[in-house]
# Entry
Amino acid sequence: MGTENDIQKSYKGNTLTMSLVALVRAFRPLQWVKNGLVFLPFVFAVDVAWSTDDLSQVPDLLVKLFLIASAFCALSSAVYLFNDLLDRAGDQLHPIKRNRPIASGMVGAPLAGSVMIILAVVALAVMVLVEPLLATAGGLYALINIGYSLGLKQVVLLDAFAVTSGYVIRAVAG
# Structure
């Protein structure tokens, strides 16, 4: 993805478009592939959750998994917004991170905070609708990542535990 200057040049004065592109960049969509882990258990659930002899359940299971993955995309984006809001001042001084949408000022803190809350609420609501217990997994994922942003990333081993647990939670949620 380009820098903020590339975005400004591409959309020549269309502030709304620039803001939307910057906001979507702040969601870090390239990281969403990690949420594909929710599909992994499906492969290993043959003859447990579904059978190759009766594929009638597969479409419903795949829709649920797609909703779960989408909810984790929204939740992980909310977590990235939270982290970038906390780290904004430090990121502004960093040669690469200063180009992030929040650090560069392309996305304001009030907008980022509002969207963060909306994404988290929608994600948890979708999880409750799909399977209420999933909201517990989503809440745990959010809490661990908030802890990571608030300081666990500075503590050796706890940082690795926090990052690794995100993968495990997504796989278990599937």
About this structure: The chain has a mean pLDDT of 89. Residues 36-93+109-173 form a domain with the Tetracycline Repressor; domain 2 fold (CATH 1.10.357). The first helix runs from residue 4 to 10.
